[in-house]
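As a warm-up, study this chain.
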Amino acid sequence: MNVFFEESGSFKAGSVLARQGDAFQVELPGGRRAKVRAKDVLIEFEKPTAAELMEQADAAAQEIDLGFLWECAPADEFAFTALAAEYFGEASGPVERAALVLCLHGSPVYFRRKGRGQYQRAPEEQLKMALASLERKRQQALVQAGYEEELKAGKLPEAFQGKALGLLTKPDKNTIEYKALEAAAAARGISMPRLMLECGGIASPRALHEARFLAEFFPHGTGFPPVQVGALPEDLPEAHVEAFSIDDVTTTEIDDAFSIEPLADGRVRIGIHIAAPALGIQRGDMADTIARTRLSTVYMPGDKITMMPDDFVDAFTLKEGGLRPALSLYSIVNRETQEIVASETRAERVFVKNNLRHNTLDELVTEETLAAGTGEYPHKDDIAVLWPFAQALFEKRQQARAGYGLRREVQRNTDFNFYVDGEHVTITPRRRGSPLDTIVAELAILANSTWGAFLHDHGVPGIYRSQRAFGAPGGPKRTRMQTTAAPHEGLGVSQYAWSTSPLRRYVDLVNQWQLLACVEHGVTAKLAAPFKPKDADLFAVVQGFDETYTAYADHQRRMEYFWCLRWLQQENRREFAATVIKDDLVRFEEVPLIMHVPALGVHARGTRVLLEVMSIDELTIEASVRMLRVLDAPVVTSGAEAEESEDEEVIESADPSAESEAEALAEADAPAAEGASEASGDPDGEAPQQSPGVQHAAETGE
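Now compare it with the structure written out below.
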């Protein structure tokens, strides 16, 4: 005897070897033996054999007309044997009954299983809806197959127009477009982005890299909602100075300007004027919400995404030719000793006479021309006053660094400007550490340090950047953001509160609110400041800013690397000179590109080598290079100088939004002499490390 039975949701047939009570010992056609309970047996039969029954039942099930079978079935629950008799009539044998079971069980759209061998047909309305859904899926499968064939052939389907970037950034994986793209890429053996690039779905790898960043951090676009600039205080006094700024030609968010007032007895009043958007923004208003959402201006070669709307930037940037609201730090300086005699902070309107630009002054304002007093340029006398003062500030910081067990800061001589026009990039070198750079950097550090102490003295919390060594003096540094004053050993200052870039960094805007409260309310500022001591919201700002700022810096670093690779391709040559930094890490000489070179060998730091670029992949932002030969070895000095030259690294710009050298140097917290890695950034140094001091020019000409 043979039986047709159900086992684990599937149907099988086998020969009965023995029966013990309500259980059968069954041998399946493949030779496996199983114990089958009597209640699981649906059909008992003598002929055909178990294997033949399954084969014939499968074939017969395919021939059953489901629509007609549904018509034949009663509306109420029924046994399969009853429907078999109704459908097959007199010819209903074990093969037909088994075929019917297979058909009923395999057609859940038409029939619902109600128990062992029991079924009920689906209601008519539900059946129609289910059949319509199946038809839609069938049609979608046909469309998807058509998309796959086009994509595999290197052609972009019409339906993919305008959707390509979305499919690669934050796609809906249930759409037929995504499924077709995924299947076509798998069939071609390449990634989906590469397939889209080949098909013309994305204009260039650059578009994909930027779209990925925007999808994550600006999912609703980079535009701003309508917002009005707040009214300035009516009693804001007017300063009797003529200020000037020093920035790159591409800078539009001009945060800082300077002024000089000669005083009696060989003294001078030096003013550091910072744009004051906090005067027109209240905590919690629409402008604050926008700034807190973005937290920082995003910079990348050829473009930027501002933290504030253009109307706000235009209202508060220190552009030349008018009175601008500013928070000013005035320092009375003894010109003979370059010591600060007294300091004062004011909120006021400042007349900005000129916006000086590096590209026109760097060649005119040098250490030699300043020493000789030669050359003609705007604010020549003012710059002549600021230069020795900046040098004195620098030396004072170096003494403080020495007290922390650190060497003097060592700077690179060159940084680079990126100018992007469409898909073409121009990368030009620019001297770093020039007198103008030093002036702006040292005055920015002075303001941030002085205002950090100003907040602390008034008991008002602020957002500080601190850096302390753990372990022995001069050991590894840990840089962190916190709400209380603490030394910044890398910069050689007792405290450092970011305050000089309120147009493009939210923490600077927060600190400016706190500083204005100190200026207006004095000893009661702690009660009037927007953020009170131990304010949980202030801690939230610190955490959110740190994470977002690092992410923005990562994107900037990635795009700088991308444009450096693009430049290598534009040059139409394969050989480039580079300098060994450490181990197999080298720095290209013509662009700010740092790369690992496999099998470079052992070379002293500073060794110049000639590299051959083997391949460049802009999609993955990777390049393969190999060393051809050593060009020349570094000049090795003797004694302590030789040891120091082996150990010292350069200071890297730590501020991804630095449009001026002030920010580039003022926030280069951890020189590589303290262990910084130029390849991946210093994990114990300034949070977002980046490639060396780059400046960017937007495509729009900003």
